[in-house]
Design goal:
It is built from three helices and 13 strands, in the order ααβββββββββββββα. It has 267 residues and is α+β, with helices and mostly antiparallel strands. The strands form three sheets. The chain has a five-stranded mixed barrel. It is flat, with a radius of gyration of 25 Å.
Length: 267
């Protein structure tokens, strides 16, 4: 690999991290710059706007904080957790042998590993967020969800005709398909348990006579089990470190480019 290629790779990495830092900076501004609303105040404001200019006219970016309350009973597949939202995935881990030829024409047998998703289930019905003043409906579709990990397990081997994982019966086993040997199956579950404290950032909208918080046409939509303070702390830390690493990569790219132009040679 020449110094020019190294310089280009370092510069590209720095650009990617700079873009990530811009995204995180925007998150900090959106979260810190949006005022927290009470559920009752949103309802009153939507009613007032509806009387003034017509029902369905209210739309406002807002943030709310409160406990998750299910509109319809929901249990996560693996853990059986009572929740308002969940996502379950089943991943197959495999290995296979392959032949690699080096620059001298010698062939060597090697082994590589990989994964494939066999099943992915997400349930995201509308639910409510309840604060001391009342509750407001949330439509979580399209949100950036920060949920809790409520199940994680790995079952070694090829498996059988079926496997019971928590409250879930899985029937999708694959053996040595395509020469790939199955090492096992990983079961992961994220959920928002009933009653969990939530932070919501989105657009409050009076649509069809029902007030709800949902994904805005433009803007950020966050549903998180973390507090506003933790979200801001994590985003600010991310901005700092991505900018530091991006700067280091940028300087390194310039050094490599200078060495290449001076004819130092390849590495």
């Amino acid at each position: 690999m020449t110094l020019y290629i190294v310089a280009a790779s370092l510069a590209l990495g720095g650009i990617v991290l700079f873009v990530v830092s811009r995204f995180l900076s925007g998150k900090v501004l959106d979260v810190a710059g949006t005022e927290t609303s009470r559920a009752a105040d949103l309802a009153d404001l939507a009613t007032a706007v509806g009387k003034e200019i017509g029902a369905g006219s209210f739309a406002q970016m807002t943030e709310v904080k409160g406990k998750a309350r299910a509109v319809e009973a929901l249990k996560a597949d693996f853990s059986g957790t009572d929740c308002v939202w969940y996502e379950c995935t089943v991943t197959r881990e495999w290995e296979e042998d392959y032949w690699e030829t080096d620059k001298d024409g010698n062939r060597q047998r090697r082994t590589r590993r990989g994964t494939e998703t066999l099943s992915s289930i997400k349930r995201e019905p509308p639910f409510k967020v309840e604060d001391p003043s009342g509750s407001v409906l949330v439509d979580p579709r399209g949100a950036s969800i920060e949920a809790e990990k409520t199940w994680s397990s790995f079952e070694q081997g090829q498996g059988g005709a079926s496997l019971q994982v928590g409250a879930y019966l899985f029937n999708g086993f694959v053996g040595a398909a395509g020469g790939r040997r199955t090492l096992g199956y990983r079961f992961e579950e994220r959920s928002i348990p009933e009653g969990r404290e939530l932070y919501i950032l989105g657009e409050a909208r009076d649509q069809g006579g029902t007030l709800s918080i949902r994904k805005p046409a433009k803007g950020r939509f966050i549903v998180s089990t973390r507090s506003e303070e933790d979200i801001l702390k994590g985003a600010r830390s991310g901005v700092l470190w991505t900018r530091i690493i991006a700067a280091v990569l940028g300087v390194s790219a310039l050094v490599c480019l200078a060495l290449a132009l001076l004819g130092v040679g390849a590495v």
